[in-house]
Amino acid sequence: MDAIATDIPDTLKLVDHPTARNAAVATRELPIGTVVLTEPVLTSVLFSYQTGRRCDYCNRSDQAEPELRIRKCTGCEVQGYCGELCQKRHWDSGHKLICRVLFRFMMSDACAALPHDQEVDCRVLSQLVAEIALQRPESAASIDIFESLLPSPHGLEVPPIVPMRRVDHNLLSRVPTLYQRFPNNNHVVQNHLRGIGVAILPLTSRLLNHSCSPNAVLRYILSASEKPRAEVVTIREISEGEEVSIPYLDPAISYPERQNRLKDTYGFDCSCKLCTVQSSMDIHPVDATQVLPLVDLLDPMLCQLAFGEGITIDFQLPEEQLCVRLPEDLQPLMDDSILSVLTERFRLAFRERFFEAAMTVGKTIFAIYLCIYPPYYPQIGVHVLDMAQVAWEKYLNEKIRENLDIVSIYLAIARRILDVYGREGDSGGPLDEANALLGTIQSEEQK
């Protein structure tokens, strides 16, 4: 704890925990939407499919911000930057040690043979070793915290790293130890709730434990000429002394699969509220051919639980995940195969312009999300925004005035949730889309 004493924000303090290393609890009452922790990434890499589309330093996209122009590094011809300052800062933070050999290494048989996740780990590990080798004062504290993190509960085969200059034998001998901290501590960088890369966030990893019923979530801020910055934002009010927790994986994953992943990757069994409730449920995998008949049978009861008499402009989100009071008859809907089928059907109906079908399926997904996720979880807001956009297209197609009211209702709910999560990523995120749609609706109403 001493290694991070000066880095803990005044919103949090570490206390003893009966099973985890520690718990970070609130030092005061934290309103919903409070940023309790801010941390620039120690180092990060983009997923391969984002290469050339985003800056390898600030991670902004030229698609979101057309004025940007991503230019390849002339040294390695692999990584790209949106400007000279990003290129210089990435160079100074480690790229200088791997630039000249990166292309040859990426094309090597050793690298080509790596599975996707290990190929990403290889690049993150190489960046981290380069960052440590440079001994930059601004990174020293984060590196110390990273090395203090608990290792994986399993032995790991270390991927190769990019050969680099000016790295002594002592540092190279520490590479296996560094890599042991990757699986249970590294984070997926998200832009508008879609993964774009992997980052090392030592302080966030050290302070915050997991819950499938979290009271906070991570968001990433992508700014010009800066490393991506992670922020932990509360999604409900937190009392003084209450633990602040985030999800390490998606709570919508089925209970058995969540437990297996948490045990395998992090070495613990989760006993949060959602897991405790779902552990007593008799949930069986549902064959894909049986999903729609099952949903048709149970949907009226589900919507009554989630929405009462209906979804109106005054609709109030529940205070907690509805799973905690889910009737036994509805428990089969908690298998994640249900959501997989429904979300694909929702996308297909929207794409094919079957708007009424999309609205019906979307409402069912909304109800299931309220069962699984905390009420202000950002994925709920994004889905309800999608429903508002479907309703808008339906209005444009039919020009029935009452349909405009439906757009306004779903948009109001979406904005309420997304306002808590706030702006994140680069330009044009869900909150910007919601506000743009609001302006369009207001213009239409004035006609």
Strand content is: 5-15%
How many distinct domains? 2
Mean pLDDT score, rounded? 93
DSSP, total strands: 12
Q: What name does CATH use for the topology of the largest domain?
A: Beta-clip-like
Assigned CATH superfamily of the largest domain: SET domain
Question: Widest sheet: strand order?
Answer: 3-11-10
Question: Low-confidence parts, pLDDT < 50 over ≥5 residues?
Answer: none
How does the overall form come out from the CA principal axes?
Answer: globular
Q: What structural class results from the helix and strand content?
A: mainly alpha
Summarize the structure.
This protein has helices at 84-106, 109-112, 116-134, 137-148, 169-173, 175-179, 202-207, 255-266, 273-279, 288-307, 336-351, 355-372, 378-398, 401-421, 430-445, and strands at residues 12-15, 23-26, 35-40, 43-46, 71-72, 80-81, 187-191, 194-200, 209-210, 216-221, 229-234, 245-246. The protein folds into two domains: 2-246, SET domain (Beta-clip-like); 270-445, Alpha Horseshoe (Serine Threonine Protein Phosphatase 5, Tetratricopeptide repeat).
3D architecture notes:
With 447 residues, the chain is mostly helical. It has two domains: 2-246, SET domain (Beta-clip-like, Beta Complex); 270-445, Serine Threonine Protein Phosphatase 5, Tetratricopeptide repeat. It has 15 helices and twelve strands. It has helices at 84-106, 109-112, 116-134, 137-148, 169-173, 175-179, 202-207, 255-266, 273-279, 288-307, 336-351, 355-372, 378-398, 401-421, 430-445; strands at 12-15, 23-26, 35-40, 43-46, 71-72, 80-81, 187-191, 194-200, 209-210, 216-221, 229-234, 245-246. The strands form five sheets. A three-stranded antiparallel β-sheet has the order 3-11-10, with no helix packed on it. A hairpin with a 7-residue loop joins strand 5 and strand 6. The longest helix is centred in the N-terminal third of the chain and has 23 residues, at 84-106. The radius of gyration is 23 Å and the shape is globular. This is SET domain-containing protein.
